[in-house]
Fold this protein.
Amino acid sequence: MSSPNSRRTADKCETVTSGFAKPTRNEAEAAFRTIIRWAGDDPVRPGLLETPARVTRAFEEFFSGYALDPAAILRKTFDEIDGYDEMIVLRAVRFESHCEHHLAPIIGRAWVGYIPDGRVVGISKLARVVDAFSKRLQIQEKMTAQIANTLDEVLRPRGVGVVIRATHECMTTRGVHKPGTELVTTRMLGSFRDDPQVRQEFLALAT
């Protein structure tokens, strides 16, 4: 078990060190073959023979966010903005994540807003920060806070707001089986938290 000092806090947009070696690709594929057998099928039949390798490659894509540093994505900023100090909102950033409890997909959209204090960041970087956190094992509440906290710590804006709306297949395709449901989470910092008018303006744009 890793020590407290080896854990990098979510508020600082950092991941948790595992304390053990990452399994090899061959080990990962063997694990998927075991799961196929456990499910009741034969991993060596023609239709499934290449499935463990395919799933391993898919997992590399699903969880590629662990290899990204969200703070580094935001470090290149622009200060030639002619005094612009109004709200900036990137709306409806689609993302795909996975629930850390069941490994089931989470499909949703994120609204990311901030009020700059002398510098702005390229809008594609906002989308990349969403991807960096979504492509990990997640719960939506934590992901919402991670995105907002990272923008606040790196950009030092006057305020930050994040709204995420998502469907969780851990409750639409299993368990309670409630299709059509959507979870909404928010994180407000600075003026987005303290000024009701700013908060309302942002929430109006996140509908």
Q: What stands out?
A: Residues 65-205 form a domain with the GTP Cyclohydrolase I, domain 2 fold (CATH 3.30.1130.10). The CA atoms of residues 115 and 158 lie 5 Å apart. The chain has two domains: 4-62, 65-205. Helices lie at 25-39, 51-62, 70-73, 123-134, 140-155, 169-172, 191-194, 196-205.
